[in-house]
# Entry
Amino acid sequence: MTRRALLATLAAPLGAQDLANLYGILDGIAAGNTPRLSFLDPKWKSLEAWKREARPVYLRHLSYDPKPAPLAAEVLGREPREGFTVERLRLRATASYDLPARLLVPAGVRGRVPGVVAIHCHSGRYVWGHEKVLSHPADHPALTEFRDRAYGRPYAELLARRGYVVLVIDAFYFGERRLKVEQIDPATAPSEMRDGLQAL
# Structure
């Protein structure tokens, strides 16, 4: 973008300015700052080599380095469904916490079968997690309407009926892993939260 074009853009009436006017500038900035760990960079020929270099950087940026815990799962219950069984699990994640999970096992399968981790959307509906992709006979109509609008159907079940073993978890801060405000004592909560908690 030339200086004259930039000045004309800045002088344009409010509302006429658009991000599209900045594409030239953004392209110039991007050209000098290519993400060195992007797998789209042609220098990466091997996925495994890329993962070896990228994973430590990723973990460092997360500032999260838990001590490894032995892999373990506890089956808390089983529910037969049409074409599959839902196993309710508790997966050992770290020494600090476990992950609630649902495992959908297709009926009549033996031996090795393909597996999928079914992840739900964020969508601002924090009270639901796995329920967004896995139905239950007691689902509230609001949940069913949301699921139908967002997904068309509970897709984890569709995959299980097609022969996939499907692991469904609640993302952090959703469903069973959400902030349970109903368990917060208003007396010990920050002052700006007390009225809302007492009303709840």
